[in-house]
Amino acid sequence: MIDTHCHLTHVKFNEDADAAVARAVEAGVTACITIGTGVADAISARDLSRRHPGVIFATAGLDPFSSHAAGDAFDDRCAELEALLTAGGFVAVGEIGLDYHYDLDPRPVQAERFARQLDMAARLDLPVVVHVREAHDDLAAILSHHPGNRGVIHSFTGGPSQAERYLSLGWSLAFNGVITFKNAEEVRAAARLAPADRIVVETDSPYLAPNPKRGMRCEPAFVADTMRALAAVRSEDVDVLDRATTANASWLFGLGA
C-alpha cells in the first residue's frame, strides 16, 4: 500500500513521526508521501524523507492557506518554492489548489496563484497534488486550460459528475477515510465508477481517520482501513485493489516501486 497524502510534519506528529512511519510499515504500507504546505514545511518534509529513504517521499507547494499567509510576499515565496523544487528531493508540486470554504484570498487571486504553480510543475515536469474544497467547477475549468499537467485530486469529496470531469481531463482521484463516513454516498458512487488505473488511496493524516477509527488522530497505517472500505464499495478483492492503487501511485509519482 502507498499512502499518497499525509502530513507527517504536522505538529500532531512532533513527538512520534518516526514511530508513525514504523507503524505504517508494520501495517503493510510500503511508501508514504508527506505533503509540504509552504516552503518551511516542505523543507521539513524533505528532511523527513531523507531520514526514511525509499519509504517517505516529499512534495512542496503553496496551498491556499500558505498562499494566503504569504500575502504581498507571495512572489518571493513562489520563487523560493521553485528554487527548492529545482534543487530536487521532491516527487510532486502540491498540495495546491482552491479553497472556497474558508475566507481566504479572493477567488481570482486563488485562481492566479494556482495557475502559476501549475505552470511551474509543467516546467519542472512534476506531477501535481490538487486541493479543492467547494470549488470543483472553477478548479476543473482551470485544469482544462493546463493540459500539460498531470496528477491527482487529493481527498476527493465530489460525486460522480465531478469525478467524470476530472477523469476526462486525465487526472486521478485519491480516496481517504471520507469514503467510510455515513454521509458520503456521493463519494462512494464516484469511487464505483472510477477506472481501476485512475485511483489511489491516502489518509490525509492527521485528519479524516476512517471508520472504525473515527475520533483518533489519523496516521498512515490507517490507509489499510480505507483500502478495505474502498474494495468493499467497488466489490473488488482487496489484494487486487492494493496492487492496482500501488502501481498507480508508483507511476504517478515516479517512485519506481
Overview features:
eight-stranded parallel beta sheet, 15% strand, 257 residues
Structural description of this entry:
46% of the residues lie in helices and 15% in strands. By secondary structure, it is an alpha/beta fold. The chain has one domain: TIM Barrel (Alpha-Beta Barrel), CATH 3.20.20.140. It has an 8-stranded parallel sheet. Helix 1 (17-26) links the parallel strand 1 (2-6) and strand 2 (31-34). Helix 7 (160-168) runs parallel beside helix 8 (185-193). The chain is globular and about 50 Å long. The termini are close together. The relative contact order is 0.15.
How does the SSE layout of this entry go?
Blueprint: E1 2-6, H1 17-26, E2 31-34, H2 39-51, E3 56-60, H3 64-70, H4 74-87, E4 92-99, H5 107-124, E5 128-133, H6 136-144, E6 151-153, H7 160-168, E7 172-175, H8 185-193, E8 199-201, H9 223-234, H10 238-253
Parallel strand pairs: 1-2, 2-3, 3-4, 4-5, 5-6, 6-7, 7-8
Helix pairs in contact: 7-8
DSSP summary: helix tally: 10
What is the second-level CATH architecture?
Alpha-Beta Barrel
Strand residue content: 5-15%
Q: What spatial order of strands do you see in the largest sheet? A: 1-2-3-4-5-6-7-8
The secondary structure category is alpha/beta
Shape: globular
For the biggest sheet, the summary is: 8 strands, parallel
CATH superfamily: Metal-dependent hydrolases
Q: CATH first level: which class?
A: Alpha Beta
Note the run of SSEs as H and E.
EHEHEHHEHEHEHEHEHH
User: Taking Cα atoms only, what radius of gyration do you get, to the nearest Å?
Assistant: 17 Å
Mean pLDDT: 97
CATH topology: TIM Barrel
Low-confidence stretches: none
Overall structural domain count: 1
- The level of helicity is 40-55%
Number of beta strands: 8
N- and C-termini, Cα separation: 11 Å
